[in-house]
TrEMBL record:
GO terms for molecular function: metallopeptidase activity; translation initiation factor activity; translation initiation factor binding. Belongs to the eIF-3 subunit F family. Gene3D superfamilies: Cytidine Deaminase, domain 2. Residues 310-351 are annotated as: Disordered. Residues 319-335 have a biased composition (Basic and acidic residues). Component of the eukaryotic translation initiation factor 3 (eIF-3) complex, which is involved in protein synthesis of a specialized repertoire of mRNAs and, together with other initiation factors, stimulates binding of mRNA and methionyl-tRNAi to the 40S ribosome. The eIF-3 complex specifically targets and initiates translation of a subset of mRNAs involved in cell proliferation. This is Eukaryotic translation initiation factor 3 subunit F. One of its GO terms (biological process) is formation of cytoplasmic translation initiation complex. It comes from Delitschia confertaspora ATCC 74209. GO terms for cellular component: eukaryotic 43S preinitiation complex; eukaryotic 48S preinitiation complex; eukaryotic translation initiation factor 3 complex, eIF3m. It comes from the Eukaryota.
Length: 351
């Protein structure tokens, strides 16, 4: 992250009124979200082998006065660059910008990026294109973000705004003065966990890292807290033993941190923590039980539909046939019984 104290902001005098209104070059601060850096690095990895750098558009939010810019998103823009000329697909840039602004209405165009720290005439041409009126960032300055992607070296980012220079309007269109501005990379707790997980893969040969379970994440977090407490305790002991130089600022920070600690006994904290762990385990067990029951019910219903339909139809046919046979047998029995009764009656009359 760049140091804000190392930058000197210069505001050039405005040109004559007949030259036309010029964009603002007031001092500003730039905040970069990590997902924008990852998108730029991914674009650099997918570039053709014969292409030295890639460029793209930066999207984000801007304060009302234009002094604070937050870069949240970016997308790649096709371009071809040789030693003599540079060509940027402006139609693609306008269409993608319209789509992104439709999907994210709160974001605006803030500038462009390049995966090279070099600033040349082509950079000035692209900078003037993004800072123009109409489809550009005018009257606000366009932010130019450079990200070095040299293999084997640390990633270095820089941010610039520009000021037009030149004795004529034609000369000023293809030249500009890049002014460095401070920047800061900010991320939340959720993003910090993801960044730590990704950075842990650098120590492995296959450059991969599996996702940790909840228990493993909790164990790692507790171990991290214990390591920090041990480091602070060693520093305090060294200061008391006059082996380390005391720092009033660090001492005040430790006092403020300790004053925020709740006045609760360690036994109560341990009891509440164990109760919370038991509640979590019970909820997890019930969730797994319900999930298993639902899965079993689905399997039984599927089996009944696929296997039970044919058996049910066969059983119905057999039952109907057996019923018909029984009815026929009953009719025969009744007929035979009637014949016997008639024979007995005849024998009685004759007697």
């Amino acid at each position: 992250m760049a140091d804000k104290d190392n930058f000197l902001h210069l505001a050039r005098p405005l040109g004559p009124a007949h030259v036309g209104a010029q964009p603002s070059t007031a001092p500003l601060n730039v905040v970069i979200q990590p997902q924008a850096i990852f998108s730029i690095l991914d674009h650099s990895l997918r570039r053709p082998q014969d292409q030295d750098r890639v460029i793209g558009t930066l999207l984000g939010v801007r304060s009302e006065d234009g002094t604070e810019i937050e870069i949240r998103n970016c997308y790649a823009v096709p371009h071809t660059e040789t030693a003599e000329q540079v060509e940027v697909d402006m139609d693609y840039q306008k269409q993608m910008l319209a789509l992104h602004l439709r999907a994210n209405p709160r974001e605006v165009l803030v500038g462009w990026y390049a995966t090279s720290s070099d600033l040349n005439t082509f950079s000035a041409l692209i900078q003037n294109f993004y800072g123009q009126q109409g489809d550009g960032t005018w009257p606000y300055p366009a932010v130019h973000l450079t990200v070095s992607t040299i293999p084997g070296q640390d990633i270095e980012a820089r941010t610039y705004i520009s000021s037009p220079i030149g004795v004529t309007a034609e000369r000023a269109a293809d030249s500009c003065l890049f002014i460095p501005v401070p920047y800061e990379i900010k991320y939340g707790e959720a993003e910090k966990s993801g960044l730590e997980l990704i950075s842990s893969a650098k120590d492995r040969e296959d450059r991969t890292q599996g996702v940790l379970t909840d228990i493993e994440s909790l164990e790692r977090a507790v171990q991290h807290v214990l390591d920090m407490l041990e480091r602070v305790s060693n520093y305090v002991n060294n200061v008391l033993d006059e082996e380390a130089t005391p720092s009033s600022a660090l001492g005040q920070f430790l006092m403020n941190a300790l004053s925020l600690a709740p006045k609760v006994d360690a036994a109560d904290i341990e009891r509440d923590f164990n109760a919370h762990i038991q509640d979590v385990l019970v909820v997890s067990y019930l969730a797994n039980t319900i999930r298993t029951q639902i899965d079993l019910s689905n399997r039984l219903a599927t089996a009944a539909l696929t296997l039970g339909s044919g058996d049910a139809l066969t059983g119905t046919e057999n039952t109907s046939k057996e019923g018909g046979d029984n009815n026929r047998r009953g009719g025969d029995n009744r007929r035979s019984g009637g014949n016997k009764g008639r024979q007995q009656n005849r024998s009685t009359v004759e007697a």
